Structure to design on (247 residues):
């Protein structure tokens, strides 16, 4: 469920946008692929740069939809709400891009960023928790071509067996079998805090390498598993800070 204070649809879409960015960040750090012939040490790349790549990618896709084969630096910067120099600096970490005096080839830069983020091939994902929040997440992920949601799970029998947005909801007891067959590498968790540790232990045993949790709780995580939290309250506090800065 969404927290009781999250009732407006715009806020729910804001939450899903957070999820989108967190997935992209996770994909980079865990499924990094070299661009061109440049070899990098991943710990040299600022996290903020990875987050901005997602923004660049969405804006480049807008350019592609508009039929813009080349997008100028000023136009891309305007659409992304950043400076031209920041875009150049971010891209420099991964290679040489752009045509001097013209801009960036839209398709080429889209392909490059997709490789950097590791989303050039579908990533198998599972979902734990099929309440309101879990279903909102599932609905969004099904629209993204490089996230292949292979299964959704819940422990409530009354939810199991349902089809939601093309995905069958299975009982949590079936997770191990599905994991052995489908070999997903990522999971999204939308469950109560008291169930989080048990869920993480189960996912780790099933070979899951990355977990994105909407549940905040102190837990122990195996060294070979990456756990990211989505803190809705913290994101909204930061947003409110930015609002105040503009006044």
């Amino acid at each position: 469920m969404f927290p009781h204070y999250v009732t407006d649809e715009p806020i729910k879409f804001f939450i899903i946008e957070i999820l989108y960015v967190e997935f992209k960040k996770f994909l980079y750090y865990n499924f990094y692929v070299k661009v061109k012939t440049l070899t990098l040490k991943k710990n040299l790349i600022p996290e903020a740069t990875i987050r901005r790549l997602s923004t660049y990618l969405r804006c480049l896709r807008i350019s592609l939809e508009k039929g813009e084969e080349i997008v100028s630096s000023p136009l891309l910067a305007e659409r992304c709400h950043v400076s031209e120099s920041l875009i150049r600096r971010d891209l420099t970490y991964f290679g040489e891009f752009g045509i001097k005096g013209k801009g960036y080839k839209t398709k080429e830069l889209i392909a490059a960023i997709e490789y950097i983020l590791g989303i050039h091939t579908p990533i198998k994902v599972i979902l734990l928790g099929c309440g309101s929040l879990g279903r909102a997440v599932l609905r969004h992920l099904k629209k993204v071509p490089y996230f292949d949601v292979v299964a959704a799970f819940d422990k409530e029998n009354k939810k199991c067996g349902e089809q939601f947005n093309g995905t069958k909801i299975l009982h949590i007891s079936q997770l191990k079998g599905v994991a052995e067959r489908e070999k997903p590498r990522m999971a999204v968790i939308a469950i109560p805090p008291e169930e989080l540790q048990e869920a993480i232990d189960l996912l780790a045993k099933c070979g899951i390498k990355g977990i994105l949790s909407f549940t905040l709780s102190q837990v122990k995580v195996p060294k070979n598993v990456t756990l990211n939290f989505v803190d809705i309250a913290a994101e909204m506090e930061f947003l409110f800070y930015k609002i105040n800065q503009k006044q």
